[in-house]
Amino acid sequence: SVDCSFSRGVCDWKQDADDDFDWNPADRDRGDGYYMAVPAFVGHKNDMGRLKLLLTDLKPKSSYCLIFSYRLAGEKVGKLRVFLANKKTAPVWEENKGKDEKWRTGKIEIFQGAETTNSVTFESERGKGKTGEIGVDNVTLISGPCPED
User: Fold this and answer.
1) Nearest Cα to 133, choosing from 89, 108, 103?
2) Number of domains composing the chain
3) Fewer CB atoms inside 10 A, N or C side of the chain?
4) Does a structural domain hold residue 119?
């Protein structure tokens, strides 16, 4: 398993230069490191911010599971989507409202065919809300299919 979390991780994260705003580090409540967040008041409605995880050593014809914590806090805060580089058109995962301020776990199966996935993009779309934030943390890549809950 590969730890891609932001405070201690070994992965290569890049801000997208062609989007509307950057993701920023935010301190965790318990003070152990930070997560990446987009506050609700940044930018205008429908603006996008993309944070890209570069994947270099994935083996072809094998499966992986990307596990991450996410939070959509605040009313009408926006959308969080995840795209895989070789499936550019549609998101492989999307969430558009938080039931509460709690962190939840997202899981995405990555099946490597002959063409390997070389990046995963977390995209935040600004909503109408003025409070709250969209956050991502504890990103981990494990080989094999995603575990059942």
Assistant:
1) 103
2) 1
3) C
4) yes
